[in-house]
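Justification of resources, computational component.

The compute hours requested in this renewal are based largely on the per-chain cost of generating structure records like the one below. Each record pairs the submitted sequence with a full C-alpha cell output. That output is archived, and it is also reused by downstream analysis tasks.
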Amino acid sequence: MIEIELNESLRRRRDELRGKIETLSAAEAGDASAADELENRTRELKALSNDTCHGYMICDAVCWECWD
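The structure output for this chain reads:
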C-alpha cells in the first residue's frame, strides 16, 4: 500500500514539473533557441531525477541500499 502511495506521489510530482516545463517553454518560445529549450528541459528532468531513489520520493521513503 505504501509503495502505491509513493508511486502516486512521484507521478503527481512528475506531472507538476512537466507542466512547469511546458509553461516555461511557452513563455520562452520567442526568446530561446531550440537548443536552449532542450537544455532547460534536460536540466528540469535531471532535477526531478535527483529527487528520486529507486523510484521513490526521497522525502517519502528511505532507501537503505543507498546508505551503504
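The longest strand covers residues 52-53. The chain has one domain: 2-67.
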